[in-house]
Amino acid sequence: MEKIRETTEKLISGERLEKAEFAALIRANSPQLREKLAAAADEKRRTFYGSSVYIRGLIEFTNCCKNNCLYCGIRRSQVCAERYRLSEEDILACCDAGHELGFRTFVLQGGEDPYFTPERIEDLVRAIKTAHPDCAVTLSVGEQPREVYALWKAAGADRYLLRHETADKAHYEKLHPSEMSFENRMRCLHDLKSLGYQVGCGMMIGSPFQTPETLAEDLCFIQSFRPQMVGMGPFIPAAGTPFEKERAGTLEETLLLLSLVRLILPEVLLPATTALGTIDPLGREKGILAGANVVMPNLSPVSVRKKYALYDSKICTGDEAAECLRCLAARMHRIGFEIVTDRGDSKLVN
After folding, report:
1. 3-class secondary structure for 213-231?
2. Which of 138, 143, 163, 258 lies in disulfide reach of 159, CB 3.0 to 4.6 Å?
3. Which residue segment(s) compose the domain that 233 sits in?
4. Are 87 and 120 in contact (CB under 8 A)?
5. Degrees to nearest 5, angle at CA 140 with 231 and 163
6. pLDDT (tens digit, 9 = 90+) per residue, 175-218?
7. CA-to-CA distance for 332 and 241, rounded, in angstroms?
8. Closest CA to 73 of 233, 320, 242, 297
9. Domain-located, residue 129
């Protein structure tokens, strides 16, 4: 226990940790350790962001995907998925409604859908930036060639979310089909950063075959890569996938990882994810208290929200709906935080 205490103090003081030290903290997960790390993470977060929680308007514009990731509920082989695509008019209407509600960041998230060519997404980005020049546009549409990322950046895209899923190559290969490669995922992340995007990476907590060592590898990667955003949530099995009977990730481990990431990168933008709210009714509040400072209500049309089923039992109504933003604001207020109308750019300077 003395070694864990020393490692904890080292992390809180801002020193870099080695893989074995991260793994030891993950193995030592306890209520006492989580409480200590959450308090330190809260202090670090308030230094840069105060009590502000930033909102992102999530638009899940297509659930068609050419990939066959073993964990994903919209994978190519998921025959029970009810596929859909939003039109450009639908997407722009979502942005207009979101702007009225106070959103100043729109996140366009979808599968790797060949229908949405680079040029179609370029046109979408330009149209959103023209209609709402005071807003940031975040894209989350998977792996692309560098020239495509450059095209979208030139069109006005500000940020890009691409979860690395795992920084351990052998683990990556257990989660993805053979046509996808760990090397290409990493290439994409480095290309995005070099092109000037605010970049988000991240991983599932509790994914199949994950160990304290693979999670420690993720933390080492985040420590060295220094992304502006890290998206993490518990793994939740999706029916009809190869992992449908695997055990889900836990709230406790996810909260520990949120605090660890906040302490590694105090300036990071860190969402309390929908998945966290799915496994616990107060999951997002607990995520904020552990160090997160972003929530992403859904701006997608109500008719398609249940169809974007990356995992089972995903919340898609109530406080998850953008129309109930006041409810979400009240929930944040109850734990001492306030939702702010702001682009919410990262304060991390590389």
Report:
1. HHHHHHHHHHHHHCCCEEC
2. 138
3. 2-340
4. no
5. 35
6. 999 999 999 999 999 999 999 999 999 999 999 999 999 999 99
7. 35
8. 242
9. yes
